[in-house]
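Internal QA ticket QA-208
Title: Verify multi-chain structure generation after dependency bump
Assignee: T.L.

Test input:
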Amino acid sequence: MGLRLLRKILIPFAALVIAASVGTLVIGRTHAAATGSSSAMSLTAQSALTQKAEAAAGYQLFQQHCSFCHGAQANGSTGLAPNLQGLGPGTVQLWLSAGWMPLKTPSAQPEAKYPIFTPQQIVDVAEWVASLHPGGVPIAPSLDLKTGSLSNGFSLFTETCAPCHTITGAGDALADGYHAPPLHGVTSQQIWEAVRSGPQNMPQFGPKNITPSELNDIVKYVTQVIEHPSHPGGIALGGVGPVAEGFVGLFAGVGACMVAAYWVGDRTERDEEDDEEHEHSGDDPTLAPEGANA
Amino acid sequence: MIDGLYKWIDNRLNISGGTRKLVNKIFPDHWSFMLGEIALYSFVILLATGVFLTLYFEPSQQQVVYHGSYLPLVGQKMSEAFQSTINLSFAVRCGLLMRQMHHWAANIFVGSIVVHMCRVFFTGGFRRPRELNWIIGVNLMIFAIFNGFLGYSLPDDLVSGTGIRISFSILESLPGGSYIATWLFGGQFPGTLLIDRFFIIHVLILPAAIAGLLAAHLGLLVKQKHTAFAGNGATEKNVVGAPMWPTFLAKTNGFLFLVAGVTALLAATVQINPIWQYGPYVPYKVSYAVQPDWYMGWLDGALRIMPSWEIVLPGHMIPNVFFPGILLPGITFTVLMFWPIIEARFRHDTLEHHILEEPRNNPWRTALGASVLAFYFVLFGASADDVLANYLSVSLNTVLVAFRYLVVLVPVIVYPVTYKICLELQHQPRASKTKRHNIVLRSADGGYSTVESAARPGDALPSFPPLPLDNLIIVGDGAGDGTNGADGAASNGSDTKRGIFRIPRSYR
Amino acid sequence: MPDSTDHDGHAEPSGHGAAGAHEPPKMVEASLDSPQFQVAAANPERVERGIAVMFVLGVVGFAGFGAAFWQNWSNVWLGVTLAVGFFGLGIGMVAWGKYLMPRGPFSESRHTNEPTDEEREVFLQDLSSRGKIALGRRSYLLKILSVAGGIFGIVAIFPLLRSLGPLPGSLFYNTSWKKGSYLVSPEGRYVHIDDLDKGGVLTVFPENDVGGPLSQTILIRPETSGYVVTAPGRETWGPEGYLAFSKVCTHAGCPVALYQKALDELLCPCHQSIFEVGPGRPATPVFGPAPRPLPQLPLYVDSKGYLRAQNRYDEPVGPGFWERGNL
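Actual output:
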């Protein structure tokens, strides 16, 4: 718990510092104009001209931050980093926006960090990688979360997501040191791209497995209910199930009742000397230890 | 009017003659004697809240489509049991509070039974003549655990449904298991009857059994009278404490309200079993990080750390879950139930005991009890191995393997450590006694001496020899009318003349 | 009192004495002014005021609960007001009993629960002599009675147990999968070979039992094309990179729903059994309590490109049971 908390605080902080310094010193010069709005990032709406320009900007960023492992042409290097060609811009955007990339060490399961690029820069890099090879997972379209069905999303979430991420989205440990990350604090775009691309250990769900409208419903459920759960009953205890409730029941519930009993009852075992002082009727109240094996 | 009514009833039931002794009954004052009362009172709360819940709960697996106030469920297919639980949580005023109080009270019920049992075990309260009451108590605990599990299953939500599936598999593993399982569930899992059947067992059969055993438990307690800790004038021949009326009644009724207050406060502030987050049970859906309630947790932990053994015999099979799911609880409860007899055999102890042992004075039993408790606590921990692995950022595999070792290692370490601590405490004659400050004095010639300070607030109250209520003669002030005292009543059998006491005139 | 307790603190088991008569109890004289009859509180007025405050708090709490209920306030208000009410009453009553009632201690005497030998003798003799007269001479009646009782006991088991449910029969051996069953998703879609991406996962059922608890099958696609051979003899069971395994865990029956793509492993969420799947990996349990591999469903692709079952499962799915034997 402590470790995790520490990591939660320290890593984004460190990443922030790095991102800020890198951003101002290096990127700032080459890409001063890039501010980027995170909401509307669908490239389909943008003209081919800007696409080209952004692809060029993405090329710069990629060479500076990614090429050391993934190679100048993003075709990976054996044993170190996978080939990114053909994975699609959605995959690249997911890994960068979640802060998974760059990795601390090549073998570790990526941890969510503060991303090193701005949203617009991420789109640039994603487009440049996508320009090398067609196909793969596209960048998430803008989802219409007003129309989707929350209930259908809940049902599908239970079927496909809850087995790993848990029904409350708290995340849990998987086999061999992997874990399913918590779903609190993820964006709708990341959910969409994760479902479609299947990062690392997560299965990949294509549009024929989970249809676009079904995915819309899932995203709606995760962003509106999992990330903003209502707890009408009080403190939720992390949503990790009855073991936490058991601890509260035992230590707070039974414990408080025992404290009450401690007050109600008589706790002072009176001293033998006191008893003698008041001319107690006589017999020695202390017992010799019983049994031969005592 | 009241006098007349009392007389009318008394003339028919002889309350004045028969109930006198009960009014006089002495209850020990020590706080650890109230642990069982926590269980008693949480059972009262369970009954009260449970009656409320049955008014709204629909024990049916009939599939319906939800159209209530919780939006993420609108349009989903679910059983009537789940729908009615959602409705009583959201649509019935005070329903959520009652549900949460019921669930917390269940946790406290089983928990206080365990704590109460520990007190009786570690102080040797189960020894002759109280073996039968110990056995009744163990059965009460078993019924309480079972009923807790059934109640947890009734809402038919995703988490509890998975638990029922596991219990079905455990039933299957019994000899003749496929018959037992299909008969109890009315078919292959899940069938359409299980909620119906669980319901009637949960609200009628087991509560009746618990109430009956509880009556027997308390009846034996009254007949055999309380045990007592040594000191404060307690001997093998008397019971020291406060009389039922009025002191004990005031305290114990107050205590009922305190337990109810704790339950209400928990139900108000800490959410338990949020089934609206879990959704209805669908056999092919599942959530990760699911466990049963804590009193079944040790069984779940045992299921998890069990190696993958399965014994195949010609034509038959002893499935893996038999060992942790049937054998472990079977051995646990059998040994627990017959422990008084086992220990008496082992120690050649056939005498009656009414004075309790200090746990430190019987290091062998204390160490054994602590070690066994540690074993079950590790098993309980193992039921959260995935959650632990996630929080500690350790591999799940490592955590599970570690628990396989810990479940052996921890009890083996706890035994000698507890034993040693007991021996050490034995040599501290005043251990666990309230201590007074020592005042160090220096005399004129430079020598030092220590004296104990006078009593201060919080120190032990000065104690007085107990007054035997059944053999008491009141003299002096207040005894003038002669009804207070007793006059050798026991010899001529006119018990009615002996009183508890009358409030003295000097009382304010 | 000291004479009745030996040095080990054990009561004499024959507490009533050999003669079987009560010893005359030792009477104790006490004045009503003795300290045991006084209240425990040093300052009773103050305690009294405190108790009054507590009872008023109880009144306020319960009244608040009433108000919260009437106004339909949230759970926390209902519960907290109720708790305040309970605590007020509880603390007040306990304090009353603890501080404002005679402090004691009092005692009552305790007698052994054993009857004397004489009592036991008389009782048993009564029992046996009456029994001899009443029953012994008509012992054959007693025998018939016990036979009748025994038979009733046996036949009563039938309605009590047998009426509860069907015989297991083939319930545990068969699923709804048949030769040629289509694979259907929970949403009712027939599964086509294009439906899953590499690394995809889907729960499937036979078309006549969608949602069936025992028929549930997990369909994964570790490859994009070709046959995935998990074990010798299963060369054609995994067409177009698809594999199908029973989703019912062989340990305790939970849905084995966690497909870990990078590891090619299935994980059971209940007790963390891990099954290896993929080429040369026929869902063998490698970790956790599961004792047997998940049964594999043989698949084929029909002419229209739909996935179908070559055959039913070749062994009972799900956890072991006593009658299963070495199937």
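Spot checks passed. Chain C has two domains: 24-107+116-163, 183-309.
Status: verified.
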